[in-house]
Amino acid sequence: EMLLSDEYFAGGVTLGKDAAAYSFNLHEHDKYNPSLRARKSWFAFGNRIVCVGSGICNSKGPTHTTLFQNSLESAEGTCSSFSGECELTDRLGNFYYIPDAEVKFEKALQHSFHEETCAPTSGCFEKAYIDHGENCTGGEYVYMVVHGPSSDADKELLKSSCEVLRK
Q1: Are 63 and 56 in contact (CB under 8 A)?
Q2: pLDDT tens for residues 64-86?
Q3: What is the pLDDT, as a whole number, of residue 35?
Q4: Which of 85, 91, 97, 162 is at 20 to 30 A from 116, Cα to Cα?
Q5: Closest CA to 87 of 24, 162, 143
Q6: 30-to-37, 58, 91 alpha-carbon distances in Å
Q7: Which of 65, 68, 69, 70 shows the shortest CA–CA distance to 26?
Q8: What is the mean pLDDT of the chain?
Q9: Could you give the CA distance from residue 121 to residue 150 in angstroms, rounded to a whole number?
Q10: Burial of 42 (C-beta count, 10 Å sphere; 0-12/13-18/19+)
Q11: Considering only CA atoms, which of 109, 104, 117 is closest in space to residue 71?
Q12: 129: closest CA among 70, 47, 74, 77?
């Protein structure tokens, strides 16, 4: 199935080997959820990524921005919620700094359906996401990532060196 969006903006650019930017306007296809919209941008500098979202709207239920989802050998059924400033590290050593958001973190067995056969499947995962709530209008976020195992100095530099001037 190849459903096309009525949004026409998507683009990326690089500056040398260590800097890049990518951005797009999201509008879900009318077949699934025409109320879902967002503007998303990523800015990469070396091993640091700044992620910005704005204009997030969805009138058909809960809206989430996934920070990460990684498979696990087993899961203990851990679930945590954070409000405001949040710091997370995934099992691969990537560091996430979220200055202000409602963040959920889970380690659990997830159930889904096979993409080709629709047969029930399951697996253990860790996942973290920003929860924009039910029937979101005007949602937004900023979060930053240090990719790969990071030192405390990398983390502090990330937290102190980024100021978002405009979304």
Answers
A1: yes
A2: 999 999 999 987 778 889 999 99
A3: 95
A4: 91
A5: 143
A6: 11, 13, 37
A7: 65
A8: 90
A9: 34
A10: middle
A11: 109
A12: 70
